[in-house]
Design goal:
By secondary structure, this protein is of the alpha/beta class. The protein has a single domain, classed as Sugar-phosphate isomerase, RpiB/LacA/LacB (Ribose 5-phosphate Isomerase B, Chain: A). It has a five-stranded parallel beta sheet, with helices on both faces. β4, α4 and β5 form a beta-alpha-beta unit. α2 crosses α3. The longest helix is centred in the middle third of the chain and has 15 residues. The protein is globular. It starts with a strand and ends with a helix.
């Protein structure tokens, strides 16, 4: 599975750390920017790059976005059909979001998340499968109906 990464200047350092960590787990990583730490960049551009690719590749790809608050990236990524993004708050919350809601984009708040917390959330995001319980599938279908 391909993991697309995007980060603005506030998330740049954490993105670089997480890319290496995810690669060491055996996942393919594609960095969609920022390529340098530029205080004039806009998080929307990187959320768009990741959102577009995850939307097109559906279950074959996931995305990890990093900005200061996590919120801007989350909002922008969710504008793309089929993207189910959330801002990670804790390892347990990310587990539930993957297992119950099949999130395919994880947004991380670099200003409020330690490196260790970010690594734990990213690991859980990559490794946690969708629950086979019918109630989760039913709810995801209702979300898909909203998109149509």
């Amino acid at each position: 599975m391909v993991i697309y990464f995007g980060a603005d200047h506030r998330g740049f350092d954490l993105k670089e750390l997480l890319k290496s960590y995810i690669q060491s787990m055996g996942s393919e990583v594609v960095d969609l920017g920022a390529a340098t730490k530029n205080p004039d960049d806009d998080y929307v551009d990187f959320a768009r790059a990741v959102g577009e690719r995850v939307s097109r590749q559906n279950d074959q790809a996931r995305g990890i976005l990093v900005c200061g608050s996590g919120a801007g990236m989350d909002i922008a990524a969710n504008k793309f059909r089929g993207v189910r993004a959330t801002t990670g708050l804790s390892a347990n919350q990310v587990f539930d979001a993957r297992n119950h809601d099949n999130i395919n984009v994880l947004s991380i708040a670099a200003d409020f998340t330690t490196e260790e917390e970010a690594k734990q959330m990213a690991k859980i995001f990559i490794e946690t499968p969708l629950s086979p319980e019918p109630r989760h599938a039913r709810r995801l279908e209702k979300i898909a109906e909203l998109e149509r």
